[in-house]
From TrEMBL, chain A:
Name assigned to this protein: Origin recognition complex subunit 3
Residues annotated as domain Origin recognition complex subunit 3 winged helix C-terminal: 577-689
Compartments reported by the entry: Nucleus
Annotated Origin recognition complex subunit 3 insertion domain residues: 335-566
Domain Origin recognition complex subunit 3 N-terminal: 4-324
Record's subunit section: Component of ORC, a complex composed of at least 6 subunits: ORC1, ORC2, ORC3, ORC4, ORC5 and ORC6. ORC is regulated in a cell-cycle dependent manner. It is sequentially assembled at the exit from anaphase of mitosis and disassembled as cells enter S phase.
Predominant location category: nucleus
Taxonomic superkingdom: Eukaryota
One of the protein's GO biological processes: DNA replication initiation
Pfam families tied to this protein: ORC3_ins (PF19675), ORC3_N (PF07034), WHD_ORC (PF18137)
InterPro entries with a match to the protein in the record: ORC3, ORC3_ins, ORC3_N, ORC_WH_C
Keywords: DNA replication, DNA-binding, Nucleus, Phosphoprotein
Function comment: Component of the origin recognition complex (ORC) that binds origins of replication. DNA-binding is ATP-dependent. The specific DNA sequences that define origins of replication have not been identified yet. ORC is required to assemble the pre-replication complex necessary to initiate DNA replication. Binds histone H3 and H4 trimethylation marks H3K9me3, H3K27me3 and H4K20me3.
Amino acid sequence: TTTLTDYFSQGKNDSEDSGLRFATCQLLWKQINSETEKIQEELNKQLFDNLIHFLRQSHSELQTKKTEWMCRMKSSEIPTAALVLGVNVTDHDMTFKSLSEVLQDNVTPYVVSLQAKECPGIKHLLQKLMGQLMDCNVDVDSSEEEECVNISQKKIRCSMASLSKWYESVTKKTDSETPSKKRTSSSRHWQSPPIVVIFKDMESFTTKVLQDFIVISSQHIREFPLVLIFGIATSPMIIHRLLPHSVSSLLCIELFQSLSCKEHLATVIDKLLLTTQFPFKLSEKVLQVLINIFLYHDFSVQNFIKGFQLSIVEHFYSQPLSVLCCQLLEAKKRVNSLSHNQCENIRSLPSFRRYVESQVSEKQIALLTEDSFLKEVTQTLLEDLHIYHENYFTVLRCLHVFTTSLPKYPLGKQIRELHCACLGKSVWETEEYESAIQLLRMLAKDELVAILQKCAEIFISSSGKQFSNTVEKLEEFLARFQNLEETSEVQDVSVSSQKELQKTTDLYHLQKTLLALKESKRSKKLTKFEMLRFEVVDFIDSLVRSYLAPAEMQTLNEVVYFNTANTLREHLNAAPRIALHTALNNPYCYLKNQTLKSDVGCISNTAPDICIVYKLHLECGRLINLVDWLEAFSTVVTAVEGTDPDAVATDQVDEIIHARFIRAVSELELLGFIKPSKQKTDHVARLTWGGC
Amino acid sequence: MPNFEHPEYPEATLLHLESMVPCRESQVSSLLSIFGERQHFSFPSIFIYGHTSCGKTYVMQTLLETLELPHVFVNCVECFTSRLLLEEILTQLQSLSSEKKHGSHVPCDTFNDFVRLFKQEIITQDLQNQTVYIVLDKAEQLREMEANVLPGFLRLQEMTDRNVTVIFLSEIVWELFRPNTGCLEPFTLYFSDYSIVCRDLKELRHLAALNFTKYCEPVVRGEANERDTRRLWKNIESHLKKAMQTVYLREISSSQWERIQKDDGEPGHLKGLSAHAHVELPYYSKFLLIAAYLASYNPARTDKRFFLKHHGKIKKTNFLKKHEKTSNHLLGPKPFPLDRLLAILYSIVDNKVAPTANIFSQITSLVTLQLLTLVGHDDQLDGPKYKCTVSLDFIRAIARTVNFDIIKYLYDFL
């Protein structure tokens, strides 16, 4: 890792605290990574429990060996679990890995995972299958050398018959083991443990391989308990598409469905981003990039987490002050040991400058000149930032409870949408917030009470003590609602007018009554419930205004917020065509050679040949005349080199220029911009459209 | 009076055999006469064919075992290479007379080796004086093996100069087998279906096994006796129908069916496999799939009409070509180049789509998910062509989720 640290320190000229930053980054990622693994484990638990239950059941039926006609019929079917995992194929590897671990811990040592690309034919499939099985046998008793030799021999001759022989010998051996050892093994695995074969990507397997495998193994199902698990990305219909009835009738298929990737993402965001547990934060734009990639492109939670990891690395790498992006106590300690350069870095932060400007002039001078004073202030500011976050997440959750009860979800259904809305700008200034508040003022009483109760729970469970007043206030509201119920009034006025409204059929009269109704409502004194409802909504509004201020407004937010969304987008959502165009059209962008700096539109003579050829070809139509092209190229190149005019006058293209041109054109062909055409002699066809 | 007459075997054995093979008496008796006596030379090869589960394997196995004829029974699906097949035959041959259950492994690479080893083995097993039967089940697999395997087996008697008969069991007719060279016509024998109604005995047995307890219920309760078939049928009819729609099609598994029966509940709450047809896709994948569908089912000429803003008034009849009068949906999806897919994509998505690497990898993902297929070789990088393989219902469901009225863009529904 020394090279990594070196890279971290070499990367920027401003290599302040690079070692410490690197260590902090590593530590933070380690914590986050273990948290994500924990989340994954919890989310999969239900699915895995169901699967184990299924395995246990299918297995017991095989084991009882009833001679009854029915059981014999059924036992000739291979128990199969169709596991629908969703289209986020990149996430499946993790799931399968933990699935086989869980199965190996609880059910059977004989778990085989197969991938379509490893099994182009039935022979490869069996080879892979037996290879993995024999390996896990070696794991069980690695002491016996001769057994291993035997295995390698069998491996060459992979047939189902030898597999069932192997199974027989393996289970017999465990039976004859010493009783003490047997007890330990049976506590983990069942007796005569099933062989579980996992087809990771069902869709990619060829029908022939699957069919052959199922037909062959169904003939040996009584010799060893085989269970299949089909990993399905699309829908279970694929089974019917891949297997004809004669083959699927050999299976006893049950369906299992994993949690949808969207729910998975919601949990990940909830546990990683909407918490004060980790000091590192994403700005609205960065979060939007990551979420967009997820929703628009791949549905992959793994990729989301990878993007998050990249943000962390990028943040600690590019922001010298990220050294303070750690737990509050540690950060305060680190502030004391900041160098003068780092103090200057703090002073140049936009958010800090804003803060300085708002102070009185003596304090301004002290902040800008005295490092020790600056450090003191920084410590309090960091604490403020921490408190801001604590409050922010609590109030955000509370507001989310309100907004999810609204029709059409003006502020979004998911909490992540609300979070993005609040992070970027002052949410109370948006139209969506306005309409949400309007809708809140129309909530029914029982709904409102339920929401208030939920909010009270959120505030109580939050760690911050500053919400004790809020909780009191909420409880007071709830009590008042309770009182209302007891002294409820009959609202005869509105009821009668409502009836009138139903009676009228004529448009003119309807309009009139509506107007009258509106007038009366405006003038009418609000009922007690309505007044209380207004009060509640105003209270929530005040909470939002005081606690959900955008992160950018917070002083020192640059320390913990990563906000260069562009860098992230360039890395995660690369556009190769655009990059290629940029490279050819504006070589300065990548080569950074001053002589290449030129205006758009004109063709620089110092540019690489391929760039000149590319720019010239942009001006052509679908077919390009090679002779014209060569002449244009020659003109550009000679104009650069300033060769004597005689050569140009001879109208003879220099041989070297000719060769350079041919090389550039063939490079362009290699890149896929042009191809030879048979439509016209001496012409090539353009494969792209558009020009400068 | 037994149906089968044969001087070689005792009457009791023949009677027992008859009881074992109902409805296959004529086939068995012709087989018996072909086999002749133990030491007789028989046909070099016999080819038996018939539909799935019409008793080919069962009859052969019962026949050979009851009469205690020396035989080898191999499944050609299981022995998927010629080497495995030949070795399996030799291994089984070894254990014919000897005590041990499994013979030791005999390496055998070529048919030539096989003939030599086979001759040796017949002598060591002392089988010269009786016919040895080699039954090759699922013989259609032999066609996939080396060209010499099938003719070799057809002429095994001739090549080994031993008393051996090879029996092929297959679901397809001999005409689809006949090799180009070295063919010796086998004796062919057809096993007809057990009845006109039953096409698959195994399935019938499966369904009967699953529903028999339900069928017996009135008898157990004392509401009907065993002979009261009418009443029993009435009781089971609706139930069987349900089973035909679910278990038979493997929509739900047999154990799930049993559980439902035990709880006496309706299978309504348990959805079959086909009920989960919905596939959740990322936003752009949905549009890519829609674009692919449009490209597959619309003639390329009509793209102008659908995707250009000012296409002018083109009536369907004006640009209808003769062969296009038939529905494109009846003809199935047509291949389209990548460029066309992207061009349609750009015009149907409201906001601007950058041609990022993610978009291209999404196309590949759709191919791995079998929603698109790559036409031609997958190593062709230059101008790949695709086909959209999803159904109209599927694409309509997808289009609905993104508020895209796909019917308006389909040439067939113009």
